[in-house]
Amino acid sequence: MSEAPIIQISGLRKIYRVGRVEVEALRGVDLDVVRGEFVAIVGPSGSGKSTLFHIVGGLTPATSGIVRIGGQEVGAMSDAQRTRLRKTTVSFVFQKFNLLPNLTAGDNIALARFLAGRNHGADPQFQDALKLLGIADRLRHKPSELSGGEQQRVAIARAVVNHPAILLADEPTGNLDTANSRAVLELLRDLNRRLGQTILMITHNPEAAAYGDRIVHMQDGRIVTTPAPT
Amino acid sequence: MRHRPLRTLLSVLLIAIPVTLILTLVGLSRGMIEESKQRTRGVGADIMVRPPGSSIISFTGAPIPQVLVKKLRQEPHVVLATGVIVFQVSGITSVSGIDLDEFNRMSGGFVYLEGGPFKGPDDILIDDFYAQQEKKHAGETINVLNRNWRVAGIFRSGKLARLVLPISVVQDLTGNTGKVSLIYLKVDQPSSINPVIASLKKQLEGYPIYPMQEYLSLLSVENVPALNSFIHVVVAISIVIGFAVVCLSMYMSVLQRTREIGILKSLGASRVYILQLIVTEAFLMGLFGTATGIFFTFGARWLILTLVPASLQQAIVPDWWPIAGLIALFASLLGALYPGFRAARQDPIEALAYE
């Protein structure tokens, strides 16, 4: 019997209310992602990619439908449980890096460990990831002293420091030049291949999407084509 | 806090102001009363006879007939008696009219730092604090009670008053000829104090008569009418100021850090953690504000000593430091609650989209 998908989404709908106007961001999304898969989600602006991410990450509730992470239904979780989900199970990499500007790169990573209550003891697996990311000698620098590529690598390090089951990357190369974009995408693929990290990545860029094991296309709040996970 | 130094510094300074206000007010109350006690003690009397219905703090006015001084001097065990007339000059400054010989016998005499006793009817004695404040020396002229006086001598502070004139001069000037404001008595031995008072009370119905020790113990902040209420009002104002300052500062802080709060939430920071961050910062500002306020109190004391040494006396009141500190911390924590809850409830997606 095959392993249950780590992410199970069915009939997901999300309606935002902007004043008196209702905006339907998701119109019934169904998607399964198995553990260790690298899925690229592609679609134009307004297609609902980010909303899907925010719901999977427990940052916002769905209007209807079901999202299960590791078998647990996100919609049924309390605020505290969703907070725990972000601490331990799902982590984010953003287009704008979102590092805390007043902390050094090392402290940004340490903060994530601290919030997850894992700030004690050595972590050989994370040391491997740091080597992979190539930022071991940049940890004492503040984000403003780092290049865009380095900042994004620090953000990835921060995202994987607590060994989350799922890494959600929202346009991770959107603010990077071609060389840095390639480096970041290769890193994500390495993390996926070597450490078995499950990754969902939003991108506009077909070249970036090609790094994924599977490409999911979204349009107008729906998935338009998605081959079944292998 | 370290990352917004100007805002933090301003907040700390604004929290320090009410702390300084409270400590200066209490210090002034204590300092003035302590100084008044010291000057009263300097008279060297054992018993004080006050006019009927007079306030414990103020002696101004002269309702006691001066002949009573002579009568009391003849009482058994009374070795010295002297009448003093007190007249308010301005604000809290008053001039005392004394019989210099009698007063010297009772108090042991003034210690003159410059000049000496009265030589004529236009002479005045002033203490060193008043001389420093008015920048006067012996032989110079000062204006008191709308006329000029020659400073005959400057004496070391600590006896009766800051400005001293011959008793008859003050009586005539104030239209109280033959009257005094209070009478000081000295008895032959301490054990005579209570029997003499008991005897006097029988003869002088309605006159408050105190042993000096008891009178001095009555001079306290608690016995000054309305002073305690005034201190309570200042404490209440301080809480309001502290609350408003911290609330505004932390509200600004939360606005400035909207995106950072969003990042923390995306990393799994709980509402309690965010609230704790804001409250901890407010607590530290309250703590630094208290320390700064205490430091400012020393500055206020230095200013008073430099500018108006004869008018105001400010004591340093360490026993009020924790009280002022608790008031500042309470106001700070109260002020942090709304911004703290607002930050804790911030929508992470909106916060992350904030530019």
Question: TL;DR of this structure?
Answer:
The complex is a heterodimer of chains A (230) and B (355). Chain A is α/β, with parallel strands linked by helices and 230 residues long. In chain A, 32% of the residues lie in helices and 27% in strands.
Explain what the structure shows.
The complex is a heterodimer of chains A (230) and B (355). In chain A, 32% of the residues lie in helices and 27% in strands. Chain A is built from seven helices and ten strands. A six-stranded mixed β-sheet of chain A has the order 6-7-8-3-9-10, with helices on both faces. A four-stranded antiparallel β-sheet of chain A has the order 2-1-4-5, covered by helices on one side. In chain A, a hairpin with a 2-residue loop joins strand 4 (64-69) and strand 5 (72-73). By secondary structure, chain B is α+β, with helices and mostly antiparallel strands. Chain B has twelve helices and twelve strands. In chain B, the strands form two sheets. In chain B, strands 1, 3, 4, 5, 6, 7, 8, 9, 11 and 12 form a ten-stranded mixed β-sheet that branches. In chain B, strands 2-10 form a two-stranded antiparallel sheet.
What is the topological layout?
The complex is a heterodimer of chains A (230) and B (355).
Chain A: E1 7-18, E2 21-33, E3 38-42, H1 49-56, E4 64-69, E5 72-73, H2 79-88, E6 90-93, H3 105-115, H4 124-133, H5 148-160, E7 166-170, H6 178-195, E8 198-203, H7 206-209, E9 214-219, E10 222-225
Parallel strand pairs in A: 3-8, 3-9, 6-7, 7-8
Antiparallel strand pairs in A: 1-2, 1-4, 4-5, 9-10
Helix pairs in contact in A: 3-5, 4-5, 5-6
Chain B: H1 5-41, E1 47-49, E2 64-65, H2 67-73, E3 78-90, E4 93-98, H3 100-107, E5 112-115, E6 123-127, H4 128-134, E7 141-144, E8 147-155, E9 163-166, H5 167-173, E10 179-180, E11 182-187, H6 193-203, E12 209-211, H7 212-218, H8 227-256, H9 258-266, H10 271-307, H11 321-344, H12 348-353
Parallel strand pairs in B: 4-9, 6-8
Antiparallel strand pairs in B: 1-11, 1-12, 2-10, 3-4, 3-11, 5-8, 6-9, 7-8
Helix pairs in contact in B: 1-8, 1-10, 1-11, 8-10, 8-11, 10-11
